[in-house]
Design goal:
Layout lengths: L3 H14 L3 H13 L2 H5 L2 E3 L14 H6 L3 E9 L5 E8 L6 E2 L5 E2 L19 E4 L3 E3 L4 E2 L5 H8 L6 E4 L5 E2 L13 E4 L2 E4 L5
């Protein structure tokens, strides 16, 4: 089997080469928000797209108008200096600034602000980015480990849904013991049932 590194390179290239990113992203998001699990969820985590990722930021203002609590992640570290995601309750796109790796995030001086932070167990539905996915819900990340801990800490009844372009799908991604499978993968072509966390 191809190495994770080679797959990552191939997936980055496919993502970068994706045509009509805005339209294709919109189609994928329409599939996602039509999911009954999304409709039912009260607290939803959306990622904010960076570089060539499937675009989510154009949909976020619409999500903010809904009756859902919208949460976005930002890259930080824990008390041991390990990579982890902070979870910020977003009320307005204006709260975000360009941070690490040119990703929109809450300003550093507001991290940890009472009422603006939630725990992974507060999430009812998690939209997960990835460099690539396979059709059984395997995920290939950037290799930094930010999402690993979040996915392990999410409630078992909170669906983990990978969002990507169809061009980022592989037949099979090599997974390690600690890797968490997605419950569903959503692309512009539709919804694939993942293996989930069993």
């Amino acid at each position: 089997m191809e190495s994770k590194q080679d797959m990552r390179r191939r997936a980055y290239d496919a993502r970068k080469a994706q045509e009509n990113k805005e339209e294709v992203s919109q189609e994928a998001i329409e599939h996602l928000i039509a999911l009954p699990e999304y409709q039912r969820a009260q607290t939803v985590m959306w990622y904010i797209d960076a570089r060539s990722e499937l675009r989510t930021r154009h949909f976020l203002p619409e999500a903010l108008k809904s009756d859902k609590r919208i949460v976005v992640p930002y890259c930080t570290t824990d008390e041991n200096g390990d990579n982890k995601l902070g979870l910020w309750v977003l009320e307005d796109m204006d709260e975000l600034v360009v941070g690490k790796w040119q990703i929109l995030e809450p300003p550093k001086d507001r991290w940890g602000e009472p009422g603006k932070e939630v725990e992974p167990t507060d999430l009812d539905f998690v939209v997960v980015p990835g460099v690539g996915f396979d059709r059984r819900g395997g995920r290939l990340g950037n290799g930094q480990g930010y999402y690993d801990r979040l996915l392990e800490s999410a409630r078992s009844d909170a669906p983990l849904v990978g969002l990507c372009y169809e061009s980022q799908l592989f037949d099979e991604i090599p997974v390690d013991e600690h890797d968490v499978f997605m419950d569903k993968i959503v692309t512009e072509n539709g919804v694939y049932p993942g293996k989930g966390r069993g």
